[in-house]
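Hey, can you fold this one?
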Amino acid sequence: MYNLRLYHDDDRTTFHRESLLFFSQCGPTGRISLGELLRLTADAAVEDYRERGMSYGFLAEHDIAILVSRLAFRFHSMPRADQRVNITTWEEKPESLQLRRAYEIAGEGEGLLVSGMSSWLLVNPKTRRIIPSRDFTLRPPVELEKDHDCLQPGKIVLPADMDLWHERTICLSDIDANCHTNNCRYGAFVEDALPPALRDREFTDFRLNYSKEAKLDQRMQVFGRADEAERKLVMVGKTEDGNSFEAELYWK
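Sure. Predicted structure:
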């Protein structure tokens, strides 16, 4: 039986979450799905805060919700079913309006599999107003900065001519306790929109930006464009309220 641990390094700034990847978390190729990758990393961030006394309930009592804004992952070797992994995460020096968090996923005895960066907005859940990062005083200030082997989270430029690739309705199973679509579900939205000719590509980088909350029963249309010369595809998901997300995938 595996003994899967949650623990901080002695400095209390670097958090580790050991996990065994199950068959149900992986797609037709046996590699982890994008939605499950987002779930693993988001859960590690939540557990990091919980272990430091900042649970979801504690933050809500202080009128704070932390919502992922942008993320970028590099796939050195995509995690696969039945693999034991260690998800490592830590906060880095924030920007004026966004927290910053880094990730590394390593396979047992196999080295680095995935590296990534994300940015998060602090929001008052009652007013929905953004809170400046300097006002987040529930934990000591963070000054750590490191180099990262991945793209930076940032603006995604959308092509002028994009085709409709997929349509869906936002369902109850997509909604979380913040009453909007959980950030992990957008990984599934991206994968579901892939045209058949692009599904078997070996992707190396993934970027995702969250623009506007997708809500229950809204209709989402996903538009995309693949650029063979640049070896990347770009997507945008739209509801009646405007752009909900933008995404990029790069392949070898």
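The mean pLDDT is 95. Let me know if you want another pass with a different chain boundary.
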